[in-house]
Every structure is written in structure tokens, then in C-alpha cells.
Amino acid sequence: MAADSVLLLAAAGVASGLAGSIAGLASLFSYPALLAAGLPPVAANVTNTVALFSNTVGTAAGSREELRGQRRRLVRLALLAAAGGSVGAALLLGTPSSAFERVVPWLIALGSVLILVREPLRRFAASRLQTSDGGLRAKLPLTCAVLLVGLYGGYFGAAAGVLMLAVLSLSANEPLRVTNAVKNIATGAANITAAIAYAFLAPVHWGAAAALSLGCLVGSRVGPVVVRRLPERPLRIAIALAGLGLAVSLWHEAG
To answer: How far apart are CA 199 and CA 206, in angstroms?
Structure first.
């Protein structure tokens, strides 16, 4: 790989790590950079998934304050997301992606809108799902949603973090920075599961993955510090608008 491609991927990795840890939009920078470096779409997709493993490492290191006391929740969500991610990887390796890619922009747009209207939806969910059985009705939709987002993350991955953030935001009343940190671990579990499968069964470009992952590690380590210092409401709106922008871009490409 040429030196200019390595520098491009490293720089894209830093931007991707920041965008992923802050907004769940890592692939907004990493996937186009891989295409620009000359990788075909399938190789770029699987290489991207493998490289973004370092995002999980960086965000976990940078979010220790937000993740304190969350171990039980993290284990449960990570197992669900990993199960979904393994199914998504199997689907990518065994089926054509064209039909699913047409649905992707709509999923991203839905997740972005859910982030925008989080508060009224939280109140609605609390009033409708509160039961005397310990909240079982509330847990079942969350379980299914995390599995599905994990599946999507393992299959394609673009803006999976936006979808996971939307799901977790509706299920917990907590600061956005905490939900964002939990989201990074959950989506990371789906990503890691898929990455292991791709490492053995798919055309991963290891040089490109190494350059991209080094940049991702730097960016994802800084991202949680940025989230900690930004006001919550403008950050939530910015994440949602960025997600809608990506949805429009992907919809245009799919058309």
C-alpha cells in the first residue's frame, strides 16, 4: 500500500474514532477512505469492521468514569449484541447485500429521529410499559432491539451506533454521556464478533486495517473526553442531524 494511502487511512481513522465514540458514526469517515484507497466495496466493508475493533478499546479506556458501576448491564447488552453480530456476519458472508442495503438508510433515519424525540418517547414508554411483573414488558422490546441492532452492526455497520444510542436512550433515564459510553461497548461487542469471522473467512486487507485502526485508537480515546465537556441537548441534536445526513447520502447511493 502506498504511503499516501496509509496517511489517508490513519487520518480517516482519527476522524472515525472521534465520530464513532461521540456519535456512533465511525463509518462515515472510515468506509469512504477505504474505497478511496482502492479497496472494492466488499473488502472495504469487512476491513472496516476489523479495523473498528480499536474503537472499542479506545472508548472503553476513555469512558471509565461513565462505565463505573455498569458491569452487569454491560455484560447483558454485550452478549445480546454479540449474538446479533454473529448472525449479521453469517448473513453478509452467505447472502447478497443489495436488498438489505436499500433498508439501511431508513433504519439510520429512524434511529436519528428517535434520538431527536427521546424525551416524549421515554415518557410514553414509561406509562405504557410499567407493569407489576418487574418491567418484563419493557425488557423484551429492549432485548429484541439490541439483538437487531447487533445483527445490523455485524452485517453492514454504518451508523449502528446511532441506532444503538436511540434504543438505549429510550430504555434508561441517565445522562447522554453515560448512555453513549454504554452504547460504545454494546456496538463494539457486535463489531468484534463479526470481525473475528471476517478475519478468517473474508477478504480483509490487513495493511489498510492496521493503518485505519491506529488512527481509530487515537480518536476513540479522545472522544469520551469531548462528550464529557459538551452540553447534552446540542450534542444530541448534532448526532441526530449527522445521522440523517448519512441516511440521505446512503439512500442516494442505493438509488
So the answer is: 9
